[in-house]
Amino acid sequence: MATGNYGTIRPADVSVQDIEMFYSYTPNRESITSVDLIPLNPIDVLVPATNPNNVTEIFGGLYTLKLPTAIFGTKGFYNIIIRPRQIRTTIQDCSVLVDNQDVKGIVFDINQIPLDLQNRFENGNLVGYRVEYLKEQTGTGQDKIQNLYRIITSNNRALPITQSQGNSNASVAYTFNDNSTSVFCTVSPSSAPSIKPNAVPFIGNPLQDVIITNTFFDPVMLEIEMVEFDDETLAYALFSNQTKSLEDGIYTIYNFGNQIYRQYNLYEVKDQFTGKPLFEVREQKFTIDPTKDFDDITNF
Amino acid sequence: MKYLRTKRNLENYTVRSIPKSVLVKNSEGKTVINTDSPNYYYGTIPQFKVDNEGNYILNSFGQKIVNTIDINVYLTQKLDDMGIFTDKEYIPKDTLLTEKPNNFNSFTYGRLAGAPVDFYYKNTPQVSGNTDDSLLGQVKSYRKDPSGRDIYVPNLNTSNNPNEEFSGVINETTDKTVYKINANKNNIPNTGIEYTTFKNLFTTTKNEFGFNETYKTTIFSVLNSGWNQYNTSLKATIKKEEYLGVVFKPEVESVVFINRGIADIFERHSLLSEIKTTNDIDTNRGGFIRI
Q1: pLDDT of residue A1
Q2: Residue A136: CB atoms within 10 Å
Q3: SS3 for A276?
Q4: Could you report the predicted ipTM of this complex, rounded to two decimals?
Q5: Higher model confidence: residue B209 or residue B110?
Q6: Residue of B69, B72, B90 to mutate, interface with A, max A Cβ within 10 Å
Q7: Cβ contact A49:A59 at 8 Å
Q8: 3-class SS at B130?
Q9: How many helices (H) and strands (E) in chain B?
Q10: Which of B74, B75, B252 to probe by mutation at the A interface, max A CB count within 10 Å?
Q11: Could you check whether the bond before residue A48 is cis, i.e. omega within 30 degrees of 0?
């Protein structure tokens, strides 16, 4: 027995539906324009690996990004952010439990949640989710309250109960009820420290917009540098087959599959009056001459 | 957030094949490429996968396959245990259920309103296995036979708590000794752990140091494990914030060697080593030393 905490790092087996992705593109590192993030649909581009011993089981950890060349086929730098999916909603109420008045929590309305995400709000499913808060008054600069978050420690469907407080006042508290569409979430931290009992931590206000995020995996940022040349293509110039057409001066470099990789025109620049050679030129040819197919040339 | 960097060469996705079908003769009779041909992709990265003839590659459903740049990423989840749960009393539903729902499994069914605690009890089959004969000595008689060998007397209770527990031999034959350890004295057949040590069978295993150890072959069996009234209760479980990160209940260890600060037996000797002059006697530690 010991006192302390322990943890682990496990391969994430998060569903693609719980992921959101963005990318940005810049043609070079020196670009000074601001970063424009463009959403990507993870369902289209992220494929989890399956366990080879059980094809109906996710392998865990390993995901393959399948980036469409229609978007990612340009030379330059792509930054891809893979992060847990955010759910935006509004705090319906902030209150306590009827039978445990010291248990404070925030209440969400399941009907405000997108249909495909409502099952995340069933009892216990939000435990571990992170709540971040938006400012209640918009148009005051940054909408998000920065550096503030709370962790959901429990969630249960709960029904509001009106309690008489005397002097014609009444307050609403909540009692667990699975038939309700309201969800009572306890968050941490939510209780005051013993040395300062009145310093109750902020957990949100009614009608305040919040961002709820799962913590199923650690976010990843991937920088992909798309290049036109690498060791392999440079090796074409050194080691692959080449032809030089003596009739028209077309110099062709083939890749290791004997497909035309580059073509150049070779010619001399001479003095127009004396005919004296001045330069030997190798100029890239962008209109490919298909008659320089290597197999056709060497098939004699 | 993890930051990963990788590099991809677009040449690997660029079409370099020139199908014969896109070649035509121009007005000069020279073979050139018909760049308007739908099969001509030379030098481009097509949106869909194409073969060397410039035709789309189709999947088993006859659909075009999106041309993609594939990159593997490894996603991980870092966890810190939030700490131990604390039991909390709750107000149960007034009317308790009397019959379990069909195929009720508490681990998949979860909490069921009105279910009494015995709905969650679960017996498991008998637990049995092999072990060594180290417990055999606990049930032997103090007497020896004429050859000096141990005697095992059936029904002789060798427990340290004989008023409540039974530890002793229940069956002794020429080839084996059957005995119980820590059985309930009033329910010996169904409680305690039953051991059977064979007198003429031996098992050899390697110990943690790699040396062979040989002992009489012994099997054990026990009933009544699983979830029962001794390890199951119905409580609400909460996590108190003051216990966040505390995984086990605190355990206080007795410290045998207590550091008592300056009141050490060597203190006086070390104190004298600090005295270099007669003035030090008066001034050291603010006049601590009195003559």
Answers
A1: 34
A2: 13
A3: coil
A4: 0.85
A5: B209
A6: B69
A7: yes
A8: strand
A9: 3, 12
A10: B75
A11: no
Interface list for B 66-105 with A (CB within 8 A): 66-83, 90-91
Sign of CA dihedral B232, B235, B238, B244: negative
Q: Which of B85, B88, B92, B112 is nearest to B101 (CA)?
A: B112
Find the length of chain B. Answer: 291
* pLDDT value, residue A2: 41
CA distance A236 to B15: 16
pLDDT given for residue B66 in this prediction = 94
What is the pTM (predicted TM-score) of this model? 0.73
* Segments of chain A with pLDDT less than 50: 1-3
**Single-letter residue type at A158:** A
Q: Cβ of A222 and B4 within 8 Å?
A: yes
Structure tokens at A255: 């890749």
B-chain residues within 8 Å CB-CB of A290?
A: 18, 23, 31-33
B244 touches chain A (CB under 8 A): yes
pLDDT tens profile A250-275: 999 999 999 999 999 999 999 999 99
Exposure on the CB side of residue B251, measured as CA atoms within 13 A = 7
Is B33 in CB contact (< 8 Å) with chain A?
yes
Element spanning B271, H or E:
helix B267-273
For chains A and B, what is the number of CB pairs under 8 angstroms?
193
Asked if B143 is an interface residue toward chain A (Cβ–Cβ < 8 A), one would say no
Identify each DSSP E strand in chain A by its residue range: 7-11, 19-26, 38-40, 46-51, 54-68, 76-84, 86-96, 104-109, 130-134, 144-166, 169-176, 182-188, 209-213, 220-227, 242-244, 250-254, 260-270, 277-284
Scanning the structure block, which residue is given the tokens 């949106």?
B47
> What confidence tens digit (pLDDT) does each residue in B207-254 have?
888 899 999 999 999 876 677 777 778 887 777 777 777 766 666 666
Q: Which two tokens stand for residue B116?
A: 């009494």
**pLDDT attached to residue A100:** 80
